[in-house]
Request: fold
Amino acid sequence: MIICGETIENGEKRKIEIPVKGAEPLEAFFVCGAKPGKTLVLTSGVHGCEYVGVEALRTVFRKLSPEMLSGAVILLPVANPSGFYQGAKQVVPEDGVNLNRAFPGEENGSLAYRIAYAVERYLYPAADFLADLHSGDCNEALHPLVFFPTAGEDKGNREALAAAKALSVPYRVRSTAKNGLYSWAVQKGIPALLLERGGQGRWSREEVDACVQDVEALLRHLGILPGETWEREQTEIVEMVYVEAETQGFWYPEVSANMPVFSGHLLGRIENGDGETVQEVRAEFDGIVLYYTTALGVGRGDPLVAYGHP
Ligand SMILES: [Zn+2]
Reply:
């Protein structure tokens, strides 16, 4: 396999630097199996305060050896290095752009677009399948879920859905996004998923272990690791509502992650500095809360609560 002009031989396990114009290269880690097979690209750290996936990919790289694999695994644990090391919420600090809205990238754009360009140029072509690992952000509580695409071509959509069913997360959510790391890959014909686990700027060994097990399930599903997978007990969410703040203020949620909600019930409200309610959020239908913002202070356009129904 040739990546960034470097040849990686079967049986090799090592780091490769992915060039980003005008910035430090991204550190990617390769495990090239002794036997041929599919290549899974795994990314995390697109958002700087989402840690479970980052530590899971570091763990996966330590655990995997080329002798175990038929095919290859490429890991990019820290896709947004300045965001990760600076603990920046949601964006690439240099340009204030959400990397997961910066696809397709631009070779000469601001840093988020140049990172997107590098991922697209160097990692997408190697991928038979791609999974991008996220959490709730540092101000969000979340119940584990996987987004699977419905906006790609039928074959890729079907492959992604079949893979999603092999994961231990309790919810799978239909997604029509197109401009993120995973969703743009889907537009380029690569079956892909976005996994979410953890949140609130925390990570635990239990969450990391669960995430590692899902990565291993994906590797087995793709035939890269030996062994069987099976369809997990999972609820498919067919419609979601993502409520945003209409104004800045003080946010008082009335929900928790994985809590059922009922049509018309209050999910939370925003107060202004004078103590007046300036936005009330009420459920549009009966459903379940998948994630919500825990921060007291919110700005206009910030996410407040995301809920959906099967
Ligand atoms: Zn994220």
